Amino acid sequence: MAKTTLPQTIRELKGLGYYPETVEKWIPVIKHRKDFLGCFDVLGLKAREPILAVQTTSLNGYSSHVKKLADNPLLVLWLETGNEAELWSWSKEGTRWVYRRTVFWLEGSGVLFSDQLMRPKKRKAVKGYRQKILFPSPLCDLPGRVYASGQIAKWADSIVTP
What pLDDT score does 56 carry? Predict the structure, then answer.
């Protein structure tokens, strides 16, 4: 895997609204990288959507990674549990990064896949931008108020109509 594909994938997942987490491990004793379930580098979490697992590589490693994913029996288990699996193969077109997005799914007793070429949009940093609350709750919806643990019961009683 090229050194630049993992940061590119994380940046693109954030742009798509996911919370990405790298799940690939470096094992220094044997100088080897171990993928999650033997086939994934990054997991992406997004509210009310299945967990997205992404294997990332350069475009040169595309065919070997498709074979690696298709031959892994844990991919079937991952997909049967309702999660999603994709392979992102990165390359440069001029000065811009593009990736080939390959989606895997179950049909019958086998794994099928299809792909398309993606061109990430250029994003500018916005001054003063703050991340949205990942897990909103009724307590967070009230502007300017912070509740201590003892006040939560009082707040809950105040919104219940007798």
Answer: 92
**What are the DSSP E strand ranges found in the chain?**
19-22, 25-27, 32-34, 42-45, 52-58, 84-93, 96-107, 110-118
Q: Is the CB of residue 79 less than 8 Å from the CB of residue 72?
A: no
* Cut 0.70: pTM above it: no
CA distance 49 to 32: 32
pLDDT along the chain (162 residues), means of 10: 74 91 85 84 92 90 86 88 90 86 83 73 53 47 42 48 46
Q: Scanning the structure block, which residue is given the tokens 């690939």?
A: 24
CA 52 to the chain's CA centroid = 5
How far apart CA 41 and CA 142 sit, in angstroms, is 38
Burial of 33 (0-12, 13-18, 19+ CB in 10 A): exposed
Helices (H), the chain: 5-15, 62-71, 73-80, 149-159
Domains of the chain: 5-127 (3.40.1350)
Among residues 65, 50, 49, the alpha carbon closest in space to that of 99 is found at: 65
